[in-house]
Amino acid sequence: MGKLTTTPNVRGADDVYAMLIDAHEGKTKAESDAFNARLILTLINHIGDAEVIAEALAVAEG
Amino acid sequence: MTMQERYPLAYKSYPYAKSPDQDAAAPVRHPVVVVGGGPIGMAVALDLALKGTRVLVLDDHEGIGMGSRAICFAKRPLEILDRLGCGEPIVEKGVVWNLGKVFHGEKQVFEFNLLPEKGHKFPAFINLQQPYFEKFILDHVRALQEQGLPLEIRGKNRVDAVEQDAEGVTLSVMTPDGPYRVAADWVIACDGASSPVREMLGLGFEGEVFKDSFLIADVRMKADFPTERWFWFDPPSGAGASQLLHKQPDDVWRIDFQIGWDVDRKEELKEDNVRRRVAQMIGEEVAFDLVWSSIYTFQCRRMTKFHDGRVIFAGDAAHQVSPFGARGANSGLQDTENLAWKLQMILDGTAPVALLDTYDEERIYGARENILNSTRATDFITPKSEISQIFRNAVLDLAENHAFARPFVNSGRLSVPCTYDESRLNSADALPGGPARTRPGSPCPDAPLGDGFLLGKLGAVKDARFQILAIDAEVPERFAAHGVSCDILQLSAVGNALLRDRYLGTAQGAVYLIRPDQHVAARWQIWNEADATSALGRAIGKEL
Hints:
The complex is a heterodimer. By secondary structure, chain A is mainly alpha-helical. Chain A contains three helices and no strands. Chain A has a domain of 35 residues. The mean pLDDT of chain B is 94. Chain B is an alpha+beta fold. In chain B, 27% of the residues lie in helices and 28% in strands. In chain B, a hairpin with a 4-residue loop joins strand 11 and strand 12.
């Protein structure tokens, strides 16, 4: 059984999504890429569980 | 007959001398011929000769090569050389260091301390120029030869052809006096990453090439940099994409510059250009002598098997890694200690030839671990794709202010000995509460014993001796089985907390069966002769 939460889990989904898009406002492609990389690493550290991260990678693979 | 030198020598230690073998009507037969007189070849030859086997070393040069090359030597190889009798002078000459700092531009982003653990005879790491390292081994060999060590070294003896059948190997050897042939029961090829012996046998060496090159400059200077390993990503000097500074003895500093894949090697190696880069890094005002410089590229690759019939490969000939992590010479020396006792027991007829398969298994396991670690470090230092570069930079940016990102920073994960967890020579762990670090397959960690140390007492170097180590447990005074008589060492951990931590854990007492290479084969709570007999048989390959 998977450890990754794949059911809706974010309260205020629209607000959070808007935060993400706003954060990229005014950034060049290179700045956005660097920002995304820092964001992913920060969230990966918060999760901290290699199994969950592996499942998330599989979800992202589509 | 003129023979080309492939490299200049630091010490002409074994000038060519004609051997009676060269005039023999038929090839003279030797039990073991080692091809290559570098540190790996010399260590395995010494180990076998100390165990009583007659060994012949053939080297196409007449001594030790110039250039500092490998400079970081780890604890385990130092312990191995101590067992062979030459660990102490090496450490005495070497520079002991513990602290590593990683910078991104001008800012420090990561720091590691090798945290020397108490109660070990040897430090975690020393730095020493490779020619010194080799010379200490060779001086020891020379001193023992005077006392009859059955080890012969022939300089300017280049192996040009290898033939083998089920009975043995015949080598065609070129010398200044022309060619001759020599026969061997076993050949150990320690002839480096471009191993001519491997090529002659047509054996593969597959892996990954990294598209970057590094310029090494060893400079002698009076500098007040601390004795630490300093690594820069995007250094402020702009002298390279990355840069490494590391201290060696004699006021010599190793500087590495990452200079890119498409470089004109000849141009870059011109003294003026090397000096310009060094000055850019250390400052125009600092006076220095350029001792040695070289450009290298990286490969991580290995053979699929480490022996082919009666020809066995060790060190760089069998596996090659990038230098980040100091896993080259250090793993090569671990090959030699794994191989020597197995080959000795096969030669003695005590162990089946199949025991050699476990040399492949155990050391391929080690090589895979080393290749994995050094590949990851190299991928971090020289990112292969745009996105890999983006993540690398993101780690470095975050690491400056956020501790959580620092474990991702990888400027090389330093060599540690490997634990042969899956080895077929191990018996199941039967010491409840025993420490994980001494589970079967582990290299024995050192511990203080009175005014000495444990490892110096484990396993006599002569013969290939197995050891029974009993700590607060009763064992018989003598134990022999399968034609192998074991040395017995009885100790108490009362009042010795380090010995307890490392060998007992929460157990009241323990009995260990330890291989001649100081790896744990089996362990139990109490002595049981039937268990010991069965574990010893397994450890010498009787169940393969």
